[in-house]
Amino acid sequence: MNRGRAARIFRGIAQPMRRAHPVELAERIELNGGLDRPVRALSEAVREALPRGPLKNLLHGVPVGHPVHAPLTDLPIGAWSSAAVLDLLPGTEKASRVLIAAGLAGAVPTALTGIADWSALHREQQRVGLIHAIGTGTASILYAASLLARVRGHHLTGKALGFTGLTALFAGGYLGGHLAFRQAAGANHAESIAHLVPLGWHDLCQMEDLPNGWPVHHTLGYIDLFVLRLDDDVRVLADRCAHLAGPLHQGRMVRVDDDVCVVCPWHGSTFRVADGSVVDGPATGRQPAFDTRVLENGTVQVRPI
Ligand code: FES
């Protein structure tokens, strides 16, 4: 990155620092288009290094049904915060060293899961995620230097590096919170149909109006639905993808192990249309599915499962 570009990015981020509220800094990062070139280059590199498959699904948290990056951050945050407390007490050098080493070990899977999730986010989320990663990466480097200084017997230097690392960690962690709670990265975006659709059967459409083998969009009250006719059968899922609300009815239909699946057009999450279960991430949560039946007069009815 050339100097002028780096200066523009920094000016874009630093401008709101004159204001008091940190969320304004986070919002400024969201809108900073100067970050897009490195974001694009890094996302492409991550997508090439981490192709779709079992490892990427594991990093997203598909096998456990939740994103795993956020819970893993407890490891370095917990270990390094505890080390900071011990650093204020006499005679705790060895325990502090162990905690810092444990935090560094925990930072590895935390970073890998974060990178996998980051590669499949919206542009604004990726901008914040990049600065979040720079903050937490800086913290890791400072803690590694702190550990090295302590091992060499330079305890005061080690403590100073540790407290500086903790500051970088909290700054990066604040942006992680902004990503999760303000920008809803990692949250489930599929409608919670249990409270939006009353129990029981609901008329949806006529069977003759559904193209065979081609998904279409319908609405049921407040809910957008993905509707797929397969000969005499009809499959219905919530249309907004659990990952970041992409429109599933615009997705590609594929077969995985003989199951008919839909691939989200935005980041490629793949769901079985029979029950909404996840085949491939980044989505980790099952897509809400509906029971269906066809009445004698050809009316298709649905009810929440
Ligand atoms: S919105 Fe991201 S995979 Fe569907």
UniProtKB/TrEMBL annotation:
<keyword id="KW-0812">Transmembrane</keyword>
<keyword id="KW-1133">Transmembrane helix</keyword>
<dbReference type="Pfam" id="PF00355">
    <property type="entry name" value="Rieske"/>
</dbReference>
<keyword id="KW-0472">Membrane</keyword>
<protein>
    <recommendedName>
        <fullName>Rieske domain-containing protein</fullName>
    </recommendedName>
</protein>
<dbReference type="InterPro" id="IPR019251">
    <property type="entry name" value="DUF2231_TM"/>
</dbReference>
<feature type="transmembrane region" description="Helical">
    <location>
        <begin position="128"/>
        <end position="148"/>
    </location>
</feature>
<feature type="domain" description="Rieske">
    <location>
        <begin position="202"/>
        <end position="301"/>
    </location>
</feature>
<dbReference type="Pfam" id="PF09990">
    <property type="entry name" value="DUF2231"/>
</dbReference>
<keyword id="KW-0001">2Fe-2S</keyword>
<feature type="transmembrane region" description="Helical">
    <location>
        <begin position="160"/>
        <end position="181"/>
    </location>
</feature>
<dbReference type="InterPro" id="IPR017941">
    <property type="entry name" value="Rieske_2Fe-2S"/>
</dbReference>
<keyword id="KW-0408">Iron</keyword>
<keyword id="KW-0479">Metal-binding</keyword>
<keyword id="KW-0411">Iron-sulfur</keyword>
<dbReference type="InterPro" id="IPR036922">
    <property type="entry name" value="Rieske_2Fe-2S_sf"/>
</dbReference>
